[in-house]
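Hey, I was hoping to borrow your eyes for a little while. I'm sending you its amino acid sequence along with the backbone structure tokens. Take your time with it, there's no hurry, and the full record follows here.
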Amino acid sequence: MVSAWHDRGVLPEVIAHRGASADRAEHTMGAYELALEQGADGLECDVRLTKDGHLVCVHDRRINRTSNGVGLVSDYTLDQLSELDFAGWHQNGAGAPPGVLTLEALLDLTTARPNTTLFVETKHPVRQAGLVEAKLVALLERFGLARPESTSDSKVVLMSFSQRAVRRCKQLAPAVPTVLLFAPRAPGRKDGELPGYADIAGPGIRLLRTDPDYVARAAQRGNPTYCWTVDEPADIALCQRLGVRYLATNRPARAREVLRAE
């Protein structure tokens, strides 16, 4: 999977950001199943820990935006989150099963599909600090995913905006590839270099719009690029032209259409 891959014009792999989250409520099984139907090569999720130590797929610190509950994810047990509606807020969420999506359930889905890669982002800062990565790698161990023969054989990629979190992931699972995500103005990232514990550069699409040569500079240093979050046709085409390796999008069907047309 991970190499100094860089080929302008070759199709990037389409990674469904929180599933097909433009069409279904994010981080729901329906969003991920639809993403696979739409031809996504991989799935992306954010994970947080519940009060009783379970990894659940929720982006925000609070559940207010994406459920009918209020408060911090970490203040709820898994049983309590399972009673809430995490889909009804979305225009296409009516009738979806209640409850939060667990990372374990998403791993069940992806491991049943041998050609699908799961990109897992740990969110920080959180009150549990490094426990998130420890629980994550322990769960990967249960699924036989924590010790691939090489990074290119891994069915999982671990990511974070936190350098400490990415370092922990590499220490706990050295052969699992890692993405260091960063904002457009992140200091020390313009030259395409990455710290030794990161395998893949993770810029947002805004950085590539203003600095399109970044992808080539990263590739010269052996670092492929994972770009988030790419929904507009012009941005999708830009990523293809630049040689972006992984394209994270809320609209995998649209991304496929644009890439086929280029």
About this structure: The chain has a mean pLDDT of 94. The chain has nine helices and nine strands. Residues 230 and 236 are 6 Å apart (CA to CA). The first helix runs from residue 29 to 37.
